[in-house]
Amino acid sequence: MVRSFLSSMLIFIFLSQVEGKVNISIGPLFSSYLLLMDDNYSKGKWNTGVEIGVEDIIPTIGLKLRGSKVRFNVSNKQDANVYEYIPLSLCTSFDILPFVDVHWLNLSLETGFGFYFWKGLSDDEVVVLESGEKMDEKDYGFVGGLTLQLKPNRYIGLEFSTRYNYIASSNISKYGLYDEDEKLWENGVGLKFIIP
């Protein structure tokens, strides 16, 4: 899935560069991730990530691919003392202020799909349950959020973002958690290097 997306993105970039309409951006993110697993259970963590974006594939619409790796220290649940998440998301980005002709300001609405790889670890080893299964899951979900981008010049953008990740965790109950699904709430800041 990720390979086919990257191939499609490269084709779009090539075709768009011929017409000179697309901006490509890449840069680091520094975000607070809040993990919600039950009504009364949540953990927070600051972490870095990376984002690649292509703007104006179609006027006011772009694509973003982002990823991170987050570790949460947890109380002793199923013998795991660390949950490791690798959230990867592919979003469509919609400029919600296309009528504001200001080159240094952009506000976008994002929605898309997420791929979530997570593990329960104890002493940096994947926990094996009594059933013999490893505490190693791959889940899908949805992402939605807003990003405010300020551009001091045409090559650099400073971004402030908030995103909600809904993870459809079909097997979460076997880990002693009662909520069927998990959520990751992300709030952060990023620096983007723009290739016009």
Please write out the topology.
Layout: H1 2-19, E1 23-38, E2 41-58, E3 61-68, E4 70-77, E5 80-95, E6 105-122, E7 125-126, E8 136-153, E9 156-168, E10 182-195
Antiparallel strand pairs: 1-2, 1-10, 2-3, 3-5, 4-5, 5-6, 6-7, 6-8, 8-9, 9-10
Overview features:
mainly beta; elongated; 1 helix; 8-stranded antiparallel β-barrel; 10 strands; Porin; 196 residues
CATH topology: Porin
Strand count, sense and barrel status of the largest sheet are: 8 strands, antiparallel, barrel
Distance, first to last CA? 27 Å
Number of helices: 1
Helical amount: under 10%
Domain module tally: 1
Number of strands: 10
What does this molecule look like?
The longest helix is centred in the first third of the chain and has 18 residues, at 2-19. This protein is mainly β and 196 residues long. A hairpin with a 2-residue loop joins strand 2 (41-58) and strand 3 (61-68). It has one domain: Porin (Beta Barrel), CATH 2.40.160. It has one helix and ten strands.
